[in-house]
Design goal:
With about 250 residues, this protein is mainly α. It is built from 14 helices and no strands.
Length: about 250
Amino acid sequence: MDVNSLLNSIMGNTGAGIDKAVKTAKSGSMPGGLLGGVAVGGLAAMLLTNKKARKMGGKAIKYGGIAAVGGMAYKAWRDYQENQAAAQPQTVTQTATVVSDPDVTALPAAPTGSIFDLAEEKQTQQGEDMRLILVRAMISAAKADGHIDASERARIEQQISDLGIGAEEQQFLVQQLRADSDPINIARLSESEEQATEIYLVSMLAIDLDTDEERRYLDRLGDALHLPMELRKNIEHEVQSAQPQG
């Protein structure tokens, strides 16, 4: 499977697809439902409601693609670890940042070769590419409020066939779209607290938390991932920091 091609179809080319979708949503010209997003950009934009697309304008888009997820998750996890060991001497591990825009909160670079470094394939012990697990988590979370009915799913599947990706990549996306939105099954894909942090963060990015269904989905996911509440709060802080205020 060409994972890079798949990621570009989801995120847009280094975030450009989502960026285009956000600009269209802000202008008020994005068609309703998920179909509007895919017409102007990456599949991630298609899976987001217009309201969510507006929220994700600006800072989150500037981070650029799947690498941003790793950087945000690493910062949340690192800060949690440092807080847990506050009484012990601290060692500075990373100072580089992945963004240079002064209007964007700087993220530490994910340590090269770590599970947070999503620039290259990262195999889990179960033999799965961590990037594909995050795609599965995002699509599952995006469906948590039940706004994708059978008719809209059929339209999305048609749009997936027009994304210009291979048959295997299309099949993967369609399978995830048709799968149940199940936080327990998604949590079973995690093998460590670091992986759980990434899964929880990308899931939070994909939903609004303005419905009971979405809140319940995220709570069940966090519980199934055995994420401490302090770490969940750190993740939520990173997600909120990535979104424009007001």
